[in-house]
């Protein structure tokens, strides 16, 4: 490109030499500049392999009679349509009469460079689909290690019993030697010491389980229901770094964090119609096909890839609610996230590592109160707490280290129950 | 004796191994007193015996269609925008939106910070934290988003685009960008645009002046 632009100002003999040289490198040279030109001018509406706002550009040359015609189209597409070119008119109608932006500033060479780049990318894409890269990834070792622990316990138990048995035998032998008459051995189920220990252990374990179960009644920690679409937080806020508040728009202003509506999903998924990242696994370790899950979203949205989307056809997705706080507790996300500046992860855990969402916190009253007792109020440049002048003064004069939520009434009954 | 012990240990091992810690069931509630709300809460399924979305049935059942009462203006939704969305293939209102002036001319330091926060949450994911059209979803063509997002700073087309037209695109969507009317209020949208314009003014003077002349026809 750089060389070609210079050509016009260079004298003829040199020009031919340069032309020859540039021919030698032409393929890679064009493709280089073609990429830059493509990203700057075309990529917002076209992809080589995917249908976006405009058609996929792979094989574009074979669809047009000549490069000249394509040049005309890129320079001013409406002119070509007006001239009555059949292919151009059909194309215009197929894409909902969306006019392609005219690019009069692109020279014929520029467009050719872009076309060459498309050709290179096209063959690359074809090669990639023909020979899929060998999948080396082993099934995620997301370790169900219970079996391992079970076996270990078993082995240890056997070893312990064997040792006890050996010990008893040795004792008997020693007694024999010293002439102490052997007492009639008592079977262990009639041995009082064994019975006492067994009852005690049973009582402790049983008591623990019963108390734990009774306390846990009505609580849903670790609840991880099947959802209508396998939505992975690991992929969205994790790998792709989407901010929590992009989707949970209510978290800053309202009581509810809000579950995103289909149109928020479609902001990105209008263009992203396949999943190509790391393999996905559900909680049971079964593999999940990400692309099929995106297709499920399209069903709810009433969207067919390649056609313009009509949001009025969308149906809400019936997600299963995970966090169910009883009605007698008031909780507001805005108060915690906006005024209190609590991180999402404090109550929801490392969401960016969850493939399936579950309830991280117990949501018990003890858990709330403990946090209110220990969390320091973020007074600094925080307009919400501007009225607590005395506390601020005390902190300034080193009378207090910090003010906890409890100090400003965070442990009062009617703060949450009214 | 020993055989019994071995059978017991083995079966106990299998029972422990068979337990899964994935909790798919919400469990039971003991005395669900004041548990479920009696009032209609967000995301509650509407009981069709009590509620209706049909105005004609309004007297017999509770009429509720999730829409704000006609004539009310939500907080942050003042600053009306007079143009409706174009029909597909039509660009009349999109072109007309160039003439609409932004009601927010400049931002003070507090609103600037807020606008930046909103930009980074809602726009930066595609248009990049530096407004260079290279956010984490595009990643120079390696991200999952196939189309290149607009380069807001450094591209003459977007540097020259009037605030009104930007507002149109943010409100109704443009090409592969969806509508952000549900995520940002009108005031927030104007603030974000003012933020983008201020960033463009800062860096725009030094970049892309030569390219400015030849792209005016490209809109």
UniProtKB/TrEMBL annotation, chain A:
Query: Can you say what this protein is called?
Result: Quinol:cytochrome c oxidoreductase pentaheme cytochrome subunit
The organism of origin for this protein = Parafilimonas terrae
The signal peptide, as residue positions, is 1-31
UniProt keyword ATP-binding, yes or no: no
Question: What's in the keyword line of the UniProt record?
Answer: Electron transport, Heme, Iron, Membrane, Metal-binding, Signal, Transmembrane, Transmembrane helix, Transport
Its transmembrane ranges are: 147-166, 193-211
CDD domains, alphabetically? Cytochrom_C3
Q: Where is the Cytochrome c domain?
A: 29-122
MF terms in GO: electron transfer activity; heme binding; metal ion binding
From TrEMBL, chain B:
Entries under Pfam families matching the protein: Cytochrome_CBB3
Molecular function GO labels: electron transfer activity; heme binding; metal ion binding
* SUPFAM superfamilies in UniProt: Cytochrome c
The protein's matches in InterPro entries, at most eight in alphabetical order, are given as: Cyt_c-like_dom (IPR009056), Cyt_c-like_dom_sf (IPR036909)
Tell me which positions the record assigns to the signal sequence. Answer: none
Region spans: Disordered: 200-219
Q: Does the keyword Iron apply?
A: yes
Q: Which domain of life is it from?
A: Bacteria
Asked if the keyword Membrane belongs to this entry, the reply reads: no
Q: Which UniProt keywords apply?
A: Heme, Iron, Metal-binding
- What positions does the domain Cytochrome c occupy? 110-200
Entries under PANTHER family matching the protein = LIPOPROTEIN-RELATED, QUINOL:CYTOCHROME C OXIDOREDUCTASE MEMBRANE PROTEIN
Query: Can you say what this protein is called?
Result: Quinol:cytochrome c oxidoreductase monoheme cytochrome subunit
Q: Which organism is it from?
A: Parafilimonas terrae
């Amino acid at each position: 490109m750089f060389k070609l632009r210079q050509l016009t100002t260079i004298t003829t003999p040199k020009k031919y030499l340069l032309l020859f040289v540039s021919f030698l490198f032409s393929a890679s040279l064009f493709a280089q500049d073609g990429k830059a030109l493509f990203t700057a001018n075309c990529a917002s509406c076209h992809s080589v392999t995917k249908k976006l706002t405009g058609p996929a550009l792979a094989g574009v040359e074979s669809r047009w009679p000549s490069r000249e015609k394509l040049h005309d189209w890129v320079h001013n597409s409406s002119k070509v349509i007006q001239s009555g070119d059949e292919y151009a008119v059909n194309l215009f109608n197929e894409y909902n009469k969306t006019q392609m932006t005219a690019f009069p500033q692109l020279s014929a060479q520029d467009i050719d460079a872009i076309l060459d780049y498309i050709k290179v990318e096209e063959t690359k894409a074809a090669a990639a689909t023909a020979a899929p890269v060998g999948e080396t990834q082993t099934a995620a070792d997301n370790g169900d290690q219970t079996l391992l622990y079970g076996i270990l316990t078993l082995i240890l138990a056997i070893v312990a019993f064997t040792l006890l048995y050996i010990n008893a035998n040795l004792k008997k032998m020693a007694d024999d030697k010293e002439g102490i008459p052997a007492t009639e051995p008592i079977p262990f189920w009639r041995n009082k010491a064994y019975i006492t220990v067994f009852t005690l252990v049973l009582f402790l374990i049983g008591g623990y389980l019963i108390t734990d179960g009774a306390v846990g009644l009505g609580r849903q920690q670790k609840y991880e229901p099947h959802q209508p679409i396998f939505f992975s937080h690991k992929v969205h806020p994790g790998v792709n770094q989407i901010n929590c508040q992009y989707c949970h728009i209510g978290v800053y202003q309202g009581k509810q964090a809000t579950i995103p509506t289909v149109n928020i999903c479609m902001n990105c998924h209008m263009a992203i119609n396949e999943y190509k990242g790391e393999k996905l696994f559900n909680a049971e370790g079964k593999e999940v096909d990400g692309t099929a899950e995106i297709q499920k979203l399209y069903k709810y949205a009433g969207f067919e890839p390649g056609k313009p989307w009509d949001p009025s056809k969308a149906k809400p997705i019936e997600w299963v609610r995970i966090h169910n706080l009883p009605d007698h507790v008031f909780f507001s996300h805005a108060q915690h996230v906006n005024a209190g500046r609590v991180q999402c992860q404090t109550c929801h855990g490392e969401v960016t590592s969850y493939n399936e969402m579950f309830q991280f916190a117990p949501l018990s009253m003890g858990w709330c109160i403990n946090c209110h007792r220990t969390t320091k109020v973020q007074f600094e440049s925080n307009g919400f707490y501007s009225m607590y002048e005395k506390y601020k003064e005390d902190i300034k004069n080193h009378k207090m280290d910090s003010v906890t939520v409890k100090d400003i009434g965070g442990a009062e009954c009617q703060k949450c129950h009214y | 004796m020993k055989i019994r012990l071995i059978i017991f240990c083995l079966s106990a091992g299998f029972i422990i191994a068979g337990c899964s810690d994935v909790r798919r069931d919400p469990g039971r509630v003991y005395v669900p007193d004041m548990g479920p709300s009696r009032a209609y809460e967000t995301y509650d399924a509407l009981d069709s015996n009590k509620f209706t979305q049909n105005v004609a049935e309004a007297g017999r059942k509770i009429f509720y269609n999730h829409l704000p009462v006609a004539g009310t203006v939500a907080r942050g939704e003042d600053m009306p925008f007079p143009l409706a969305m174009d029909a597909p293939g039509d660009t009349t209102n999109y072109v007309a939106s160039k003439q609409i002036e932004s009601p927010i001319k400049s931002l003070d330091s507090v609103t600037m910070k807020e606008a930046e926060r909103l930009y980074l949450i809602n726009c930066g994911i595609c248009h990049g934290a530096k407004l260079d059209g290279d956010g984490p979803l595009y990643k120079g063509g390696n991200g999952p988003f196939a189309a290149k997002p607009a380069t807001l700073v450094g591209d003459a087309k977007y540097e020259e685009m009037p605030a009104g037209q930007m507002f149109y695109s943010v409100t109704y969507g443009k090409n592969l960008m969806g509508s952000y009317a549900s995520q940002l209020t009108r005031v927030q949208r104007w603030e974000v645009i003012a933020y983008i314009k201020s960033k463009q003014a800062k860096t725009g003077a030094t970049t892309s002046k030569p390219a400015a002349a030849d792209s005016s026809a490209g809109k």
